[in-house]
């Protein structure tokens, strides 16, 4: 890295087989202040650069393969950040994330938004929110906040509790640009019921995945005329859903698995 005229670098992709040298984090934040893209997804880096907030022009940040990492509070200074990928780690995101008003894509492995429960609704630029756990006290406030994210295109939620399904339905009804939706229920001796009641369902929805018990096939699913992919897992339906789904003329892929 020392041979590169770092002051002119706009994109930096990091590939390592072993843990990065101690100097890496300091050099990145000190010498690459004009970076727009920092991608460490294909590396074995274990530590987030301490002065990450110094790279104020950063738009894309991927820490995908961090096994153990903490997203430092200084990330709230990255006001130009549009994509944050932490898909390699289980993380509780700090409340400072809610200051990133330009953030469009937030991708994780198992993300906790509990610290953002008072601010998630203000992140109105969000279009992608993947793999968010909502099995905790305070989940109701988080789910209500999601309803304010009207630009959402790709939403993936895991460990959804049965008691939160009504609130979740109300929030999804507000996402009229939604194209991909994944809802996976919580497991406690069995999967919970996830009978989503979508009244003003997003007609733009193209891909839908539901994992959890359905008392019956939701009436809104056969009305999704732009749907190309449908996956139902553990639904335990007592009636054959194919009769209701034959009107989906654009459906290309149908998956019914594990007692669906």
From TrEMBL:
<protein>
    <submittedName>
        <fullName>NB-ARC domain disease resistance protein</fullName>
    </submittedName>
</protein>
<keyword id="KW-0677">Repeat</keyword>
<dbReference type="InterPro" id="IPR055414">
    <property type="entry name" value="LRR_R13L4/SHOC2-like"/>
</dbReference>
<dbReference type="Pfam" id="PF23598">
    <property type="entry name" value="LRR_14"/>
</dbReference>
<feature type="domain" description="Disease resistance R13L4/SHOC-2-like LRR">
    <location>
        <begin position="8"/>
        <end position="258"/>
    </location>
</feature>
<dbReference type="InterPro" id="IPR032675">
    <property type="entry name" value="LRR_dom_sf"/>
</dbReference>
């Amino acid at each position: 890295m020392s041979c590169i005229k770092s002051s002119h670098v706009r994109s930096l992709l990091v590939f390592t087989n072993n843990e990065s040298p101690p100097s890496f984090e300091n050099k990145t934040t000190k010498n690459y202040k004009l970076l727009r893209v920092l991608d460490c997804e294909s590396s074995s880096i274990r530590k987030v650069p301490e002065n990450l907030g110094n790279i104020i022009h950063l738009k894309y940040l991927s820490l995908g393969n961090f096994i153990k990492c903490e997203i430092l509070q200084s990330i709230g200074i990255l006001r130009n950040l549009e994509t944050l990928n932490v898909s390699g780690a289980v993380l509780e995101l700090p409340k400072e994330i809610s200051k990133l008003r330009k953030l469009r894509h937030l991708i994780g492995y198992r993300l906790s938004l509990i610290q953002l429960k008072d601010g998630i609704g203000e992140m109105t630029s969000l279009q992608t929110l993947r793999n968010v756990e909502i099995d905790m006290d305070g989940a109701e406030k988080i789910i209500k906040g999601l309803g304010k994210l009207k630009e959402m295109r790709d939403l993936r939620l895991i460990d959804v509790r049965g008691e939160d399904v009504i609130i979740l339905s109300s929030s999804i009804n507000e996402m009229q640009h939604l194209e991909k939706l994944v809802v996976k229920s919580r497991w406690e001796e069995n999967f919970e019921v996830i009978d989503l009641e979508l009244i003003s369902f997003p007609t733009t929805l193209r891909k839908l995945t539901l994992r959890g018990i359905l008392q019956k096939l939701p009436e809104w699913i056969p009305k999704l005329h732009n749907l190309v992919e449908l996956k139902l897992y553990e639904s335990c339906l007592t009636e054959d859903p194919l009769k209701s789904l034959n009107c989906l003329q654009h459906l290309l892929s149908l998956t019914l698995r594990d007692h669906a």
